[in-house]
């Protein structure tokens, strides 16, 4: 109850800060589930598809890949459906599709970074407007009966609540934003290695 009482004294800017915390938390939880390895690069999928292609079962390989909804399956499908392409052209197609898949993997993460940057600014704005209000009231009070130091101190710490809350929201959001961004980078590297291996298997005569 004391926490809610403190928040109530923080002013209207408390609410957008809390909204930033809620939205950021939802996006982070969603990305944690979306960036699990089995939803990006299922283990054994490449070997399974290449084994089918080795037995001239292209249609079955395509059917297997379409049964997945992952970046790796989407990239391998490009390679499997275009066996007539030379290696250079195939790599260009894969890079184009890989760019789209990378963008999809990072969806929402940059917005978490924006929220992490905006939350402390909202807190600072709340503190500044609160301090303006405090000193306005102090000025009015001083002309009448003098300044009460207790009222001044009380107004100042109430104004600082929004800054403290903004920082409390921003710090974990920023840490998790950097973690998710690094997670995407690592997964993209793993995808590139998987796809490059597949291309080398499909075009062994063009290996360098």
Structural description of this entry:
The structure is a single chain. The protein has one domain (2-206). Helix content is 81%, strand content 0%. The chain is built from eight helices and no strands. Helix 2 (14-34) runs parallel beside helix 8 (149-202) and helix 5 packs parallel to helix 8. The protein is rod-shaped. The termini are far apart.
Summary keywords:
208 residues; rod-shaped; mainly alpha
Radius of gyration: 28 Å
The number of helices is 8
Main sheet characteristics: none
Low-pLDDT parts are: 1-8
Distance N terminus to C terminus? 69 Å
- Total beta strand runs: 0
Instruction: Name the assembly state.
Output: single chain
The helix-and-strand class reads mainly alpha
- Tell me the domain tally: 1
Proportion of helical residues: over 70%
Shape: rod-shaped
Q: What is the averaged pLDDT score?
A: 83
Secondary-structure element series: HHHHHHHH
